[in-house]
Amino acid sequence: MKAILIEKPEETQIVSVKDVPDAQLPEGDVLVDVAYSTMNYKDALAITGASPVVRRFPMVPGIDFSGTVAESSHPDFKPGDRVVLNGWGVGETHWGGLAERARVKGDWLVPLPAAIDLRQAAAIGTAGYTAMLCVLALERQGVTPDKGEIVVSGAAGGVGSVATALLAARGYEVVAVTGRPAEAEYLRGLGAASVIDRAELTGKIRPLAKERWAGGVDVAGSTVLANMLSMMKYRGVVATCGLAAGMDLPASVAPFILRGVTLAGVDSVMCPKPDRLEAWSRLARDLDLGKLEEMITEVPFAEVIDTAPKFLDGAVRGRIVVPITA
Question: Is residue 326's pLDDT more than 70?
Answer without folding.
Answer: no
